Amino acid sequence: MVKKQDSFNYEIKFSKKLLIVVFVLVLVLGLVYFLRRYLIAATVNGKSVSRLAVLKKLEKQGGKKILETMITEAIIQQEAEKRKIVISQKDVDAEMKKIEANVTSQGSTLDQALQNQGMTKNDLTKEIKIQLMLQKMAGNDIKISDKEIDDFISANKNQQGFDREIPREQAVSQLKQQKSQQKIQSFLSDLKTKAKITYFVNY
Q: Considering only CA atoms, which of 198, 151, 197 is closest in space to residue 172?
């Protein structure tokens, strides 16, 4: 009786172990199936091209530029958090409408323009927020003198393709944009100088 009971218990334990092994195998195969798109970029005649190989090549081609962009974004976001600057959805939507109007005036759509750039609306939203943070921190108090406007109009008189002056409002707008960009670049350069950046890869 004892021997039969022991045999029965052994069979139960063996069955449990077998079930666990089968479950683990099914789980591993399932993970491989679902994760293959994250591990394999493509197959050529049955031979796989790994995503790691693609990423390594991309890093060689543009890794430095991408890394510097990400570092810059991190610096801007950290500084904005320190200053408690929050960008509202209303601000983002307003900028999005401006961009969409500009793209539409060129005979395209926002979706097409984003697709051509390999971007999504979420990517654009992130860029808009970063830019608005930067503008708020750098300041929008741009002053332009009458002399600067006159000099700008005079210097750009013959660049319109016909013999007439640039409208004063257009000159003011372009000068403001130029000065704003200069101010932002100066502010950003100062932020980067003060930031502690440690590189673990060299491109």
A: 151
